[in-house]
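pasting input
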Amino acid sequence: MVAEFWTYLSDWSSFDTWIVVTAALSAMACALPGCFLVLRRQSLLGDVLSHTVLLGIVLGFLGSHALLVGGWILPSSYPAIQKAAIFAGAIIIGMITAVLADAVKRIGRTESSAALGVVYTTLFAAGLLLIRLAADHIHIDADCVLFGMEETAVLDTVGTTGIPRSAIVNGGMLLVNGLLVLLFFKELRLSSFDPQLADTLGLRPGVINMVLLIATSATLVAAFESVGNILVIAMLIVPPATAFLLSDRLPFMVLWSLFLAGFCAIFGHIFALTVPPILFSRMGWPEVDGARTAGMMASVAGICFFGALLFSPRKGVLSKLFYHWQLQLRFIAEDVLGTIYRSQETREPPSKQALVFDPSLRWKQRLLTMWALVRMKQLGLVVQQQGEVLLTAKGTSLAEAIVRSHRLWESYMARHLQLPDVHLHATAEWVEHYLDPALREALESELDRPQSDPQGKQIPAEPVE
Amino acid sequence: MSSTGIRLLMALFIVIGTFRMTSAQEKNKIPPTRTTLSRPDFSLPEWDQLVRVVLLRDYNTRVVLVGTVLLGVCSGVIGTFLLLRGRAMAGDVISHSALPGLAIAFLVGEAIDPGAGRVTSTLLIGAVISSLIGMGCANLVRRFTKLKEETVLAIVLSLFFGFGAMLLSIVQQIPSAQLAGLQNYIFGKAASMVYDDVVLIGVSAGIVVLLALLFFKELVILCFDEDFAETQGWPTKRLDLLLMGLVVCVTVIGLQSAGLLLVVALMMTPSAAARFWTDRIGWLTLTSAILGGASCYLGVLLSALFPRMATGAVIVLMGSLFFFVSLLLGLRRGLFWKWWHAIQLRQRVERADLLRACYEAAESLSISQENSGQPRELIDVVITVPQLLAYRNWSERRWNRLLTKAVGHELIVSLPDGGYRLTQGAIAESRRIVRNHRLWEMYLIHYADVAPSHVDRGADWIEHVLAPDVVDELTRLLNEPRDVVNVPESPHPLQPEMTGGGREER
């Protein structure tokens, strides 16, 4: 299978390189405003914009074409004016989307996501209709706008340099966005995290919001032309959201999202070339020879996102589960130590069976108890003699700390909260795991160094390390 | 943004829309030439065609129409709950995440038995499964991360759609895929509907609406107050699942006609529009269903009349048209009626203010003339505009305008020398107003310890909304006679301009 993989990659040409470069540049350009959209809870607006700028693009096409037909502009300047008109149209429609959604929300008192939805479907439907109606006049069709024609976009090169026009446009957009982020980093950060504070400091979050909107719309158009709608939707939000799971600081989040965008571009194209033919030739469809890069990039972004969701060191599901499990294990171990200590105070040490099959434990806790006993034996906290579990010196000092915490807390609650005795034990059973030597000392002096707890049991002295 | 702005924008869209419709009618078989746009030879559909379409003589139009209208009605019903629950965009996520399901269902179907992948029901089952998975993913991500709701929706939407697009690009390389028409599910192609599809839509729409009506009470309580529903012992989690399941059903049966990009509009727009017409949930659901059906009906008719109008997009635009019309004219919350009520209120307040100023001016004139030994009735006192200026901070032009209007309403009589006299009816009406004003002033002085120089402003606001029972209560508290003819004396000097405090214009 590996050999097959390399066979499909063997005819990698400079076009493939340029596809990857263009895709990476546009994805990175999208990721920059995307970071702030995610933080400002405007992700859906980004999604919506990437649908509605379609109308702006079509209007730009039609407007410039009408100018040409009307004889207002020279055919030689037509391509440049067309590009400008498309950008202008998309930016205007982007702003109209946001303003109209806000107006519908405020004036019509419509619920906010419904307002956004109504405006977005209207503009998008209008865009689709126009495309269908005007398909004769302009070289644009819904499929290619939606899914992009990355593979052909790179054929449109500038002069004899061999550099695709789309790579230059998207690179320029990345540069502009990068400069904007660098210049207004402080303002963006403050207005994303605390708009009220930004307002009181005179940073005008409204203006920043508008600038972000304009930058997003412009980036969307630049990417739209070369790589299509799908990529734009996925690249705007998914890499920043993945980066959000991987970092806690804004600069790192921005860097992570740039890196992920580039990563998605490279591996998106490689997988698009290799994975479908490998899989589908085995399923009996040898005619399949690759998928659209944009779609595969979105899929790679999805894999990255769910990977981060599972494996992120601090916010991942697995690390959270692991931390939770460790905590649970510590609690169980401490409970077991306390139980052994208490039974040693009064009678014979308990047997392993008695510890594990304590009727108050549930099955999961019994398993954890067994595991805790094994671990504690390894650490030299307990020894097993003829079926009985005994504390070692090290284990005893740990157990003393636990029992001391438990009984000090019971005394504290009995004195200050005037709770009846029956209510003391359950709470102390929780709190004992959180008390450190300093807190125990503070509790003891607060209670005038008591010798015994409310039930008359002796409070052990603080163990010497 | 002002309402004028909205209207302008709408007008702009409509103008652009009609322009495009008219100019794009001519379809040339030859490649486009530079002159096509310059000679718009727009032709309305022939009379025969119009009659044939409107009277549903075409079998095809009839089939498509029945299917989409049924869809519109049932999506209107479900949309109401989606809207009230604040989950409109969740519907969008559900529809977008149907795409990979369509592609995979086709692949699986073809792999099992060549040709099976092309059957509509196979594709729709795939769509249902993948929509449900998308919804589940959104729930999982929301539960396990601190990402915001909007971000989660955006992520799931874009990932599923991107994945689906990738699969679609693969599927299209398989020869038999052209026959399955997977493209139609993205942009919608109602024209491809056949009798069997309509039966499928009809049965599912019936089941969906029936379920919604059966669980009407439960869904309403879930939408309005989830916590209350929970405390009452309703299984809110399962009800939520039921609602989302209904949404998935509507989405999937709507894929064929509206397309997965726009099917959410069928649910969202009619219900949002209906919200402007009524405040009662029953009526809301009914209105929404009617609007949904109507926009589908009009959309199908229009796209049958004009060539190359994508049905899905036209249906959605018709819905949007209803929405914006409702936004402007809706009886409950429409802008026009709000504006109308605001004007009515303003006129009422203006009239009351005018009457009180005139009355107070006449009153103080009659008192001063009484002091000089000529007792005069209020009806005989002549007031002039310069005197009135002191009683309310209105410009002279405004005074003149309002006084002319008041003459028309027979509140005052204009005298030849430029003065004015109150009529008997106006005196009776202004007695009530002035009395309310002064009662409130006295109340503020006695019970709220407000200085007499400060009470005028507050009373100026409240006098217009004092209900009769409140006035009765005030007279009782202040030991004033209940007789309207007895207007108490003002607790502070009138002509505030001279005393320093101003009665400001609102």
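fyi The beta strands of chain A are 157-158, 163-164, 382-385, 388-391.
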